[in-house]
Amino acid sequence: MASYDVIIIGSGPGGYVSAIRCAQLGLKTACVEGRETLGGTCLNVGCIPSKALLHATEMLHEAQHNFAEMGLKGKAQSVDWKQMLAYKDKTITQNTGGIEFLFKKNKVDWLKGWGSIPEAGKVKVGDEVHEAKHIVIATGSESSSLPGVEVDEKTVVTSTGALELGKIPKSLVVIGAGVIGLELGSVYARLGSEVTVVEYLDAITPGQDGEVAKVFQRTLKKQGLKFIMGAAVQGTTVKNNKATVTYKLRKDDSEATLTADTVLVATGRKPYTDGLGLAELGVELSDRGQIKTDAHYATNIKGIYAIGDAIAGPMLAHKAEDEGMAVAEGIAGQKPHVNYGVIPGVIYTHPEVSSVGETEESLKEQGRAYKVGKFSFMGNARAKANFSGDGFVKLLADKATDRILGAHIIGPMAGDLIHEICVAMEFGAAAEDIARTCHAHPTYSEAVREAALACGDGAIHM
Ligand code: NAI
What we know:
14 helices; 32% helix; five-stranded parallel sheet; alpha/beta; seven-stranded mixed sheet; binds 1,4-dihydronicotinamide adenine dinucleotide
């Protein structure tokens, strides 16, 4: 048995970041993790492996579609699926090993095993019970289940199974046109699978700026993805290693089926808090199973905190990281703050899609007067040279004050470009502040400046 200032349960982006920050602030810290490797869903079976497959297949697409035009001739690329998976696995190992190194460097103890909280101030890992003045629950989330759909991680898979399929499926049905479905759907479409996305709503990526969602769907269609919209999946059956998906169209209640080699269920995630002993402790949960916390991430039980996917808010690794740092700083007596109005969202397809702050829809709903500055990547020299002219930057600013309220980008490096706007928003900047900032030429970031110029007297290259 050991005694700690803080024990964090879970080593995903929320937990490991929190552990490192606690240790940096002089707190004796341990992190409990039952997986073989640190890093949680994100590093082991989420963000990182999917990005490796996205990168590899993007390269394939580039080679197949644009090399010849650039005068790059030679043998066409073919896919060695086993090798691609090995590359993905190496990427995972490099990253999870990196966290282990950081734990050692910062003197964070890794308590190996699954943790539970027998009582406030105590964490049980295996047969050992450790003491902690503060306990942070950072146990993340798991794929939510869909009635009538039995996941076997072979034919009917979640994102976990989709990252290590035995072979590239000839046909893939994706249930849910959210972030996971579209990222992994893109991977397999580029690998030659016939991909059909079945979505309950009439637009893809719920909560996204409507205009971006439309352009995004059109772009994915051009890439070969098929969409069946307004369709509620009723269930799946598996026979002879093939899965049949039954869905009902919302407009007329008619039922239809689709059969495919693989079905990916991507209809959302739910907090993962099994086995912690929360009910026995009396920790309050919302009706969606999220741990209830106050603004300082404290639960209703003294000394127990929760962060990340296990609590309310967007299920994003970087939101969990920010909360992980904030809870550590709060425990150490500082006064941290997470600005939930400036949390970027990125979809790592090609082109990428990113957003921050308000959408036109949310501003209309609030009855706020706003202006739109838009610039197409077609007017950006660098994008044109790189076959990346599809897409645009859209900046939303307050009509009277010019203060930036939100931004939505679909296009090359959208996931990186958004951060200039995030910083500007943190400083309460006006669109004119970005418009008057010199941007290097030729860069994609000029499109952000042009969108800011379009909020004022007009973009130059449009
Ligand atoms: P999601 O919530 O983004 O999308 C799920 C979609 O499934 C919705 O469009 C919903 O309308 C649809 N749906 C639900 N039930 C259905 C049914 N019976 N039939 C047809 N469609 C149905 O969920 P997703 O993609 O599974 O992602 C889970 C979480 O992981 C999200 O919070 C997401 O933000 C996060 N994530 C973020 C990533 C990123 O930031 N790049 C990458 C991967 C996941």
